[in-house]
Amino acid sequence: MIRRLMLRDPKVWRCSSNEGAHILGLTVKNGSGKRELLLYRNAIGDDVGEEVDVIAVVVGLVMDVRCSVCGKVRTWRPD
Ligand SMILES: [Zn+2]
Asked: Which pTM was predicted?
């Protein structure tokens, strides 16, 4: 069975590398209009079609996320 996710207002969430722009995850709005982070297992480049595993949905807490490509840390803060 295929589970379809409805992503509201998805935006890529990238690491803080100047040269990089590795994608750490996606931010979407949930049903109550709060933004949450779908965190990927591994950061990816701009390679569309690369398969991703979502390892966590982060909502409502501040969290440091380390890029698995370049090691830079970006802090996630919900709206
Ligand atoms: Zn990076």
From this structure: 0.78
**Ligand 1 geometric centre to CA of 76 (Å):** 14
Distance 42 CA to ligand 1 centre (A): 10
Q: How far is the CA of 29 from the centre of ligand 1 (A)?
A: 24
Q: What is the pLDDT of residues 3-54, one digit of tens each?
A: 666 788 999 999 988 766 899 999 999 888 889 999 999 898 766 566 788 8
Ligand 1: centre distance to CA 32 (Å): 30
Beta-carbon contacts of 15 under 8 Å, excluding residues fewer than 6 positions away, are 21, 22, 23, 24, 43, 65, 67, 69, 70, 72, 74
